[in-house]
Amino acid sequence: MYDKQLAHHLKKFLEDNKDSRYKIKDITKLLRIRKHKHKDLIDTLFKLARNEEIHLKNRKYSAIQIKSSLYLTGTFDATSLAKNKSYAFVIGKEEDIFISSEDTLNAYHGDIVEVEVKYSRNHKKYGIIIKIVERNHDSFVGTVQEYNGKYYLQPDNSKIHTELLINELSNAKPGEKVVLKILNWGNRDLNKLPVGNVIEILGKAGDPEVEILSIIMQYELPLTFPEAVLKELNNIYLGIPQEEIVRRTDLRKLATITIDPASAKDFDDAVSIEKNNDEFTLYVHIADVAHYVSPGSNLFAEAVKRGNSYYFPKKVIPMLPEKISNKVCSLRPFEEKLTVTVKTVFNADFSIKNQEALESIIRSDARFNYEEIDAHFEGEKEIDKELVTMLDDMRKLSSALSKKNIKNGYLSLNIPETEFIFDEDGHITDLQRSRQTESHKLIENFMLVANQFVAKRLSAKPTIYRIHEEPGEEKLLKLKKLVKNYGLKFNLGEERHKALQELLNSLPDENHHRVFDKVVLRSMRRAKYTIQNKGHFGLALQNYTHFTSPIRRICDLVVHHQIKDKINSRQEKFDKNKLLQLAESATEREMIADEAEREVDLKNKLNFIKKHLGEEFDGIILAIRPALMIIELNRYPVTGIVEISSLKDDYYNFMEEHMRLVGRKKGKIYKLTDPVKVFVSRVDDDIYFQITE
User: Fold this and answer.
1) Please, what sign has the CA dihedral across residues 221, 586, 287, 295?
2) Best label site of 35, 215, 324, 577, fewest CB within 10 Å?
3) Is 248 within 8 Å of 339 (Cβ atoms)?
């Protein structure tokens, strides 16, 4: 029979002697195969040859010869290794390379590595790592642990697949979070772990502030601004010179408001509306950050380096210093501010009559949060009479824009974010799901109008677009198979937007939306920044960019410089190559922000749910995989794992196309959207549930 360990030895032997070909008797002799293993040898050789892992010709065996380039460079992905799998991947530019755990050298997640491709099978490449080109990190954050008199670091990053040996503790104690600087990367073949010294003690593990700080340190996010940046701030004048007021469009007498989250401190957008007979004129005012932050300055260079602001519960790492983000550029009420305004005139049928971009000066009349506006719309809060008519006109325009967006193919996915409720000491007391209300939609609709116009206005020459490419055919076919098995309609023969809209509209209840909105999202490509105008699939827009948040996103700041140059007929500040570089950097920093924010969310949820060990909750099945089910609780926006091995009432077969489990003896079925009762059985690197009925 086929012997996996023997197969590994055979492939290694043939690869080490890749210029030679061997008969079975030669292999038997050279590898000293005993008689009782002879049949296993034949079976193993036959299967390896059939699977194209080795080559067979004229009854002689040899290593697979790769005709194309033998060496590729890519990023090491240790996600599967960290989950105790025996393999990992190197993510290349065009394809991924399978790497056995024995062939990973001493690579760690995110490292740039060089791979020697050994053979191909079923259109996939298999190889070994021969060189570490560049380390992703040379320091790690984690918790100190003691075992048999030695000290180890248990990394916070779950994708770091081994512990790390501590050489010098520097007064750190077990149970404390520390930063470990690597001195030696170890040797996998000799079972030697990487070794490092503790260079910083963050505090006791489990402390809320320490836990967030540990993730900030893990992702090497900047906690302070360089001295050169702070010096430049001294030259920024908080007032507005008269000559600047004279040359701008003066909109200070126009009724203007901001609508933001209650916790917001930087207000980079404000809105106004005027009604003349049946026409509406919408003004979207955006803080003129570009007036204060110029290319070539230390402020701009630091903003490029950060890419965006990073938002964590109770803590923000801003892209720009507080003097700019929270003071001089924040559109605070009753203060005169410099802005770039997109003015849009709508006809009686809410189609756009004309648009223009203006350098302007405004004075906000009121600051509202979303809850206040929603309360007004629902008749539960009184607003100043001067602003009531304006808000009602905004509501009417927003409603019309929503209908037009949906008609054009806008995909509305209801995927709430988690809102954390804290006590005075910073400990989480509750978790809630966010809601997208009418006020959120109003601001979103108005920002879409501005972003779309600016993208179109700049499209004659290179600029930065926010794109979202159409989903791949393979993922859509997979989605179609799945939803068909749940009695849902997804007609791929129709225009893609319409097909997905019909699918979302056909979902019968809230539980189906909780599951299948996420399934649809996973079928989508990731949005990104680029200088190629490929349109935005999710928004159903051909021209789209990010213009409305220059305080917290570098691409918005770049686009501001471009639109201001266009308004003033000036020479552009960025060439095509620079724009491409900025777009790629911004996309990379956005991904880091998303990962860091997700990790903080997970850590907060782990700490919160630990208080509920053993408690029972109602939930629904979000996903099913061969070895586990993913359950989302109803009470809290928390997901956890039910291991299939914990289901003791039967042996369950996994039906991949139907995404369900079927009991072999009793025929019991677990499928997506099913309600279940679970109790919290364990909390470590993830949350684990067990079914109670």
Assistant:
1) positive
2) 35
3) no
Q: Residue 384: which pLDDT band, with cuts at 50, 70 and 90?
A: confident
Chain centroid to Cα 655, Å, comes to 29
3-state helix, strand, coil in the chain (%, to 5): 35, 30, 35
Tokens at 299, concatenated: 């402020």
55: pLDDT strictly greater than 70:
yes
Average pLDDT over residues 581-602: 93
Burial track 215-253 (b if 16+ CB lie within 10 A, e otherwise):
bbbbbebeeebeeebeebbeebeeebeeeeeeebeebee
Give 392-415 as a DSSP string: HHHHHHHHHHHHHHHHHT------
End-to-end Cα separation, the chain, in angstroms: 41
Beta bridge partners of 282: 273, 344
Single-letter code of the amino acid located at 503: L
- CA 96 from chain center: how many Å? 20
Question: Rounded to whole angstroms, how far apart are CA atoms 273 and 283?
Answer: 6
- What single-letter amino acid sits at 605? K
Contact, 108 vs 118, CB < 8 A? no
Classify domain 4-63 by CATH number.
1.10.10.10
Closest CA to 8 of 126, 161, 162, 130: 126
| Mean pLDDT (whole number) for 654-683 | 93
Task: Judge whether residue 452 has pLDDT over 90.
Answer: yes
Token readout for 330 is 């924040």
Tell me the β-bridge partners of 230: none
Q: What are the angstrom distances between the C-alpha of 673 and each of 122, 431, 479, 523, 626?
A: 35, 22, 16, 18, 17
Least confident of 136-140, 234-238, 415-419, 677-681: 234-238
Which whole number is the average pLDDT over 339-360?
A: 96
CATH of domain 613-691: 2.40.50.140
Rounded Cα distance between 173 and 182, Å, is: 18
Task: State which fold the 139-205 domain adopts.
Answer: OB fold (Dihydrolipoamide Acetyltransferase, E2P) (2.40.50)
Is pLDDT above 80 for 494?
A: no
Number of residues assigned to the chain: 693
Name which of 324, 322, 329, 326 is nearest 285 in CA terms.
329
The residue written with tokens 């070909």 in the block is 21
pLDDT digits (tens, 9 = 90+) for 87-106: 999 998 878 899 998 899 89
65: pLDDT strictly greater than 80 = no
User: How many Å apart are CA 563 and CA 451, to the nearest integer?
Assistant: 11
Q: Whole-angstrom Cα distance, residue 482 to residue 206?
A: 41
Q: What percent of the chain has pLDDT over 70?
A: 99
**Could you tell me which of 259, 450, 272, 235 has the C-alpha nearest to residue 361?**
272
Q: Stretch 173-201: mean pLDDT, rounded?
A: 92
- Show the tokens assigned to 631: 């359950």
**Segments making up each domain of the chain, as ranges:** 4-63, 71-134, 139-205, 227-386+409-468+529-598, 473-524, 613-691
Q: Provide the 3-class DSSP secondary structure of residue 467.
A: strand
Strands 352-363 and 249-250, bridge-based pairing: parallel
The pLDDT score that the predictor gives to residue 66 is 54
DSSP reduced 3-state for 195: strand
- Burial profile 93-110: b = 16 or more Cβ within 10 angstroms, e = fewer: eeeebbbeeebbbbbbbb
Q: How does DSSP classify residue 41?
A: H
